[in-house]
Specification:
Length: about 210
């Protein structure tokens, strides 16, 4: 039997996000297991039967975007019909447009490439249920302020927004004030890091798949 011990951010965030209906702020350092903290609730709440984009995860770099997609793929390997797709710069955009023509439930994107795809009408966010801003402070420090504002303008008001950041910088506070509604805020001690020698295993199964 494998023992799984959640990190602090996972322990605090997951119960708030699964089945919750409020916006959420998770303040925790890089390397504290944030992908599972938002990824597991997302996978639990997405309906694979609905053939449109239900969740968008924004990440500052293509490397992080690929990591998130890889982890969500592992978590959801037993969820039938679920499609997770990473889109980012530095890869052939026409291949991404082709992939997006198939029903895609979760898009993981870097801001610049996502805007390009939206303008090419390859991505529609009008039925989005969940928006995750991962490493939000990094996106701001890399100069994506205007891109974030533009992307958020394409999303419906009644979505849930989950913001994860290491710091609560001035620009992050502006985003929270402008785009989030009475969010729950969780702050994790900055000294906590995930032990790289410990393997955490999570598997999501929908209710009808459980035995």
């Amino acid at each position: 039997m494998e023992f799984v011990s959640p990190t602090d951010i996972q322990q605090e965030a997951i119960p708030q996000l699964i089945g919750g209906d409020r916006d959420f702020i998770g303040l925790a350092q890089t390397g504290t297991g944030k992908t599972a903290a938002f990824g597991l609730p997302l996978l639990e709440m997405i309906d694979p039967q609905e053939k449109h984009t239900q969740a968008l995860v924004l990440a500052p770099t293509r490397e992080l975007g690929r990591q998130i997609a890889e982890q969500l793929g592992k978590f959801s390997k037993h969820v039938k019909g679920l499609k997770v797709l990473p889109v980012y710069g530095g890869a052939a955009i026409m291949n991404q447009i082709k992939d997006l023509k198939k029903p895609t439930h979760i898009i993981i994107a870097t801001p610049g490439r996502l805007i390009d795809l939206i303008k090419r009408k390859a991505v529609k966010l009008d039925q989005l249920k969940f928006l995750v801003l991962d490493e939000a402070d990094e996106m701001v420090s890399m100069g994506f302020k205007e891109e974030l504002d533009e992307i958020l303008s394409y999303t419906p008001e009644n979505k849930q927004t989950w913001l994860f950041s290491a710091t609560m910088a001035k620009e992050i506070k502006r985003i929270v004030s402008k785009y989030m509604d009475d969010p729950i805020e969780v702050k994790i001690n900055s000294e906590e890091k995930v032990n790289v020698n410990i393997k955490h295993q999570f598997v999501v199964t929908k209710n009808h798949d459980k035995t």
